[in-house]
Amino acid sequence: VQLVESGGGLVQAGGSMRLSCVASGFTFDDYADYAIGWFRQAPGKEREGVSYISRKDDSTYHADSVKGRFTISSDNAKNTVYLQMNSLKPEDTAIYYCKIWTYWGQGTQVTVPS
User: What is the three-class DSSP state of 28?
Assistant: First the structure.
């Protein structure tokens, strides 16, 4: 049972990137009562929630710091959740993790040079 993130890397400020989170060993429907979330942790800072999507009605929530720039979505057939990140800023540099219930992925590094 695991979550695997991918899609991170280095991108210039103002650029875009899409992160993916694939579940293996279970399906998101197995935890339909729980939202799926993207979190991030920058060096020297606490991990923070960035975006969430409800499995019940696909409603979404985005932190103020990313609202209007990031979009969370899911593809149930692929058991995958995405985080589309546009207009990236240096302050978006962090390790990005996905989470559902108590399961965390290993994280993927996103770097936006200043």
Answer: helix
Task: Show the tokens assigned to 104.
Answer: 């965390």
**For 16-59, how does the pLDDT look when each residue is reduced to its tens digit (9 = 90+)?**
999 999 999 998 888 889 999 999 999 999 999 999 999 888 89
Q: Are 103 and 24 in contact (CB under 8 A)?
A: no
| Matching residue, tokens 């995958």 | 80
pLDDT value for 28 = 87
Residue 24 exposure: Cα atoms within 13 Å on the Cβ side = 7
Greater confidence (50 vs 1) lies with: 50
Assess contact for 98 and 108: CB atoms under 8 A.
Answer: no
Longest Cα–Cα distance in the chain: 41
Assign 92 to helix, strand or coil.
helix
- CA 22, CA 28: separation in Å to the nearest integer? 10
pLDDT greater than 90 at residue 106: yes
